[in-house]
Model the fold of this input.
Amino acid sequence: MDSDTFFLELPKVELHAHLNGSLSQATMLQLKRFHADSGLEDKTNAFFDEFQIGAGDTRNLTDCFQVFNIAHSLTSTPEALTIATRLTLQEFQDDGCCYLELRSTPKETPHMTKVQYIETLVKAIQKSSLHLTMITRLIVSINRKSSIAEAEEIAKLAVEYYKKHPDVIVGIELSGDPMAGTFQSFVPALTQARNAGLKTDDKGVFSTSLSQEYQICVKTFSLTSSQTARLALNACQYVFADNVRKTLNDKLLNFIGKHSL
Done:
């Protein structure tokens, strides 16, 4: 088996994927077409000249968050959010991902409330699970730029929908620009969610994939195929969805045994 095939077929566990940070350029193009067909205003033309990234190029933190802003503007309706989620989940599975913890912050836009946002995500994940073999779970994010009141609102929503859909929602997190806000300010909201049972804790931004990230890791640390497979196996210990941990573990062990690793 050549190295590209090995990295693609290796069952991979992705524990940190922000939806809007994982939108590929192909997905963004589809979303731009959707905006055009729907008559929605599109202010994202800068993406295709200023923010495309090629092999060997780099991005600073400011560039990264600008790409997030562009992605946010393309997922401002329930329909666009559904398209983005569906395409992104398919891309992760096509890349050999067997378990994905997707993260996203419920947002209020001119076309959708925070409630509609989280409902749309849950429904899109549930519908995708009917034809994908990859297991997907959702972690609700609080943006560091949020006010305390908004953080508490999102925490309450996370708890409410965790109780309704424990098979989909598994955690809550604080994310966003590390230069914004202070962690201590959000502790009460996170504690509220944790007490309710939630766990507390991108490929699009850098035009990469999980398989490519594994290849970089192998090259950087001179890992063997056996070490790489066991690195993927170790990731199973850290999934928030306790009820699928054994399934993932067995899948990796089967791969290791099949290829005598």
Observations:
- Residues 202-206 have pLDDT under 50 and may be disordered.
